Amino acid sequence: MKRFILLLCLYLPFTTTASEEARARSIIDEMEQLYRGDSSDATITMEVETPQYQRTLKMTGQSLGKELAFFRILSPKKDRGVATLKRDEEMWNYFPKINKVIKVPPSMMMGSWMGSDFTNDDLVKETQLIDAYHLSMTEDKAMYRVTLTPKEQTVTVWGKIDYVISKDPLLPVSQSFYDEDGEKIRELTFLEPREYEGKLMPSILEMTPLNKEGHKTRIIYDAITFNVPGITKQTFSMRNLKSRF
């Protein structure tokens, strides 16, 4: 009898933890799908702010599932036509002025995209949070708070990510990124919820690096359409990447 009780005590925390992690995974997966759908087509403004300068980029972005993403800059004129393609675990940039495609190596996925505070990884969501991290969750009446710690095989510079999600409505609020020493390095804030085709989602994503005073980047969704029939695998071809318009 004592042995049975001991085994039961050992077993119950495991099942509770597994259940909590499954719930956290479901919530984070829903947040990751928020801007994607089965497919999506967006027009986006990106504002980069530093102590030295401010710049604004206009771009389009398409996605198909989790594996395919494509971005093309529309303005300013000097950057027009620069494009980024992500297929599965590979990523390329196209620079029309030199008519050259450059593959982004895995070591550069955490590098800045177009001089912004967002990384290549942020842009194409290469690192799927629910697959690459262990999740634990706490909650109160208003918020879920999910702590993500990288799995052993995950290649990342982050020692931990704290993700806050509001319950009503169910929307992302913030992500805080910590290094391996536990120091908070940057914060992503989700702002100004807006309905797109009846779907409520934050219209602004604001990234603030805490180790770079005066730096900030805002991604603004001017418009976004989901489940677009015209978006197919051909949208994410090397031929389309190199096409001029």
What CATH first level would be assigned?
Mainly Beta
- CATH fold name, please? outer membrane lipoprotein receptor (LolB), chain A
Number of separate domains: 1
CATH architecture: Clam
> Which regions are unreliable across 5 or more consecutive residues at pLDDT < 50?
1-16
Strand neighbour order, sheet with most strands = 6-5-4-3-2-1-13-12-11-10-9-8-7
Give the end-to-end Cα distance, rounded to a whole number of Å: 76 Å
- The number of helical segments is 4
**Secondary-structure element pattern, one letter each:** HEEEEEEHHEEEEEEEH
Oligomer: single chain
Structural class: alpha+beta
Q: Largest sheet, if any?
A: 13 strands, antiparallel
User: Overall 3D geometry?
Assistant: globular
Q: What is Rg?
A: 20 Å
Task: Write a structural description.
The chain is α+β, with helices and mostly antiparallel strands. The protein has a single domain (about 25-240), classed as outer membrane lipoprotein receptor (LolB), chain A (Clam), CATH 2.50.20.10. About 20% of the residues lie in helices and about 45% in strands. The protein contains 4 helices and 13 strands. The chain has helices at about 1-35, 120-125, 130, 240, and strands at about 40-50, 55-65, 70-75, 85, 90-95, 100-105, 135-140, 145-150, 160-165, 170-180, 185-195, 200-210, 215-225. The radius of gyration is 20 Å and the shape is globular. The relative contact order is 0.18.
